[in-house]
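Table S2 (text version). Query chain:
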Amino acid sequence: MTKLMDQKLRIENPIEDLVDYIALLKPRVMSLSIFTAVCGILMAPGTIHPFIAFITVLCISIGAGASGCLNMWYDRDIDSIMQRTKDRPLPAGRLHPDNALAFGLILAGASVMIMGLAVNWLSAMLLAFTIFFYIVVYTMWLKRSTAQNIVIGGAAGALPPVIGWAAVTNHVGIESLILFTIIFLWTPPHFWALSLYRHDDYLRANIPVLPVKAGEHSTKKQIVVYTILMILSTIAPYAVQMASVLYLYCALALGGIFLALALQLYWAAGINKAMRLFGYSITYLFLIFLSLTIDIWGHFS
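Corresponding structure-token output:
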């Protein structure tokens, strides 16, 4: 009876439906992907018409949103178990799964087709691969089968700057692969910090994240290892003369803070420092890409 009343109220309040459909797109997660894609466009050599650049960002945004939507559609069973996700539109019963599936597929198809027709087909194929990898390889396969799910699955989140780069140049250069590598190596310590804090959620949902399978100490150790690898990858733009020494100083300073927080987490008892590292990791990636973009643009001016 309560569900029927909720459905009737929904019909009379379509704004709430709109809010839930927007929530399916995972706008907070999508925003970082959009930012790195924009940075990829700005850093790429050559020129792109402002309108084509806008179409590129729009398609990447729609594609990222489609990925989030299809991820929520497939994961609605475990989302209903986890405290962090139980109030999402699908596990909460506010939207029908079939509608979410159709919404995600339409957005995914539209983003790829528009990218191919308006920009170039290389960037469209990269976008299609990103969506496929995130949904099929990560969400449907890796996430529920291996503790290395985020290590391999992180490739999907690392591709937006490569897509942006390809939209301008119509090729994938070593510089764009460096941008990919930075995000790829950033993803494990970023996610593992959160999964340490949400250990009980993942255990309850039977998701084999590293803290559940390997334990707290091993996860903390891996966070430190990947943090060091990530910092080394941020030196690469300077090593290939993509950026100046000013960027290098900025990258080392930001990386030093990241490593200090990772070591604090490693040495501290329990997981109290985990969310501090998680919060900084988001700021870190934003500042790394911002400083690199500003540095490269400084060379052009």
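Notes on Table S2: Residues 72 and 187 are 20 Å apart (CA to CA). The chain has 15 helices and no strands.
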